Amino acid sequence: MVKKALFVLLTSSFTKGEQDCETTADCNDGELCNFDYGADGGFCEPCPGETEQACVDSGYHTDLGTAECKSVCVVWKRTRDSCWIPCNKIGGKCAWCGESGFCCRKGVPGNPVPSHWNGNCPINAIKAAKIYHHGCVSPKV
Predict the structure, then answer these.
(1) How many helices (H) and strands (E) does the chain have?
(2) Residue 129 above 70 pLDDT?
(3) I want to staple 27 with a disulfide (CB 3.0 to 4.6 A). Which of 44, 47, 89, 130 is the partner?
(4) What local confidence, expressed as pLDDT, does residue 7 receive?
């Protein structure tokens, strides 16, 4: 009986439908909330790597799981400065920043950047961006 209880305790967070996270913020650093079984929550698991391809190759069951992986696990790098004017004063995906580039700006403690300034910039893209002005960032290849 004790062995069975221990087995259930050790494996319960890996059971399909078990929800130990509602968002990736519920997980530890280097982990994401895997939403493969629906948008209502999932389970924390380690990032499969630092590139978009690692997220694609990891075989998530849904596009939601792959998208969350790309948003959280991919490492970004700065590629160009001063994209605000060339990107029509709109943060987010911008052709001027390249095929997979985004025009993003990072805030500072006590003075965050308004969310609409970054459009659809992924979380890690914003973390890689410059503080005082918008710059192009792209995922690590």
Answers:
(1) 4, 6
(2) yes
(3) 44
(4) 33
